[in-house]
Specification:
There is one protein chain. It is built from three helices and four strands. It is of the alpha+beta class. The protein has one domain. It has a two-stranded antiparallel ribbon. A two-stranded antiparallel ribbon has the order 3-4. It is elongated, with a radius of gyration of 16 Å.
């Protein structure tokens, strides 16, 4: 009998997303009955200007809504210049502070 931790040992954490995935790799993931990941479209909104970023991310059915959103946020921060603050606000690259101390423009 396998447990969820057995699968975690073989694969990177669910929040780790490749910058892109080949169609062949995605097909292999989807065909693997032991791989819980599947693509899900997630949209993140800039809390300052309303800009939307919608992409497909690999998630798992056992992830909560917040964990799925964390997958998208982590990717956008690491690869696209977004900023997510401790209050749960998201800022696109135009409105992300460059040094963490800068004041964001107000609406």
């Amino acid at each position: 009998m396998t447990t969820p931790s057995d699968h975690t040992d073989r694969r990177p954490p669910m929040t780790d997303q490749p910058a892109s995935i080949s169609p062949e790799a995605l097909s292999a993931i989807l065909r693997d009955p032991d791989d819980p990941r599947y693509p899900s479209q997630i949209t993140v909104f800039c809390d300052h200007c309303g800009h939307e970023d919608t992409r497909d991310y690999l998630v798992s059915e056992d992830m909560t809504r917040q964990e799925r959103l964390a997958v998208a946020r982590q990717y956008l921060v690491a690869n696209e210049g977004w900023e997510c603050d401790p209050d749960g606000d998201d800022f696109c690259p135009v409105h992300a502070s460059t040094d963490g101390l800068e004041q964001r423009p107000t609406a």
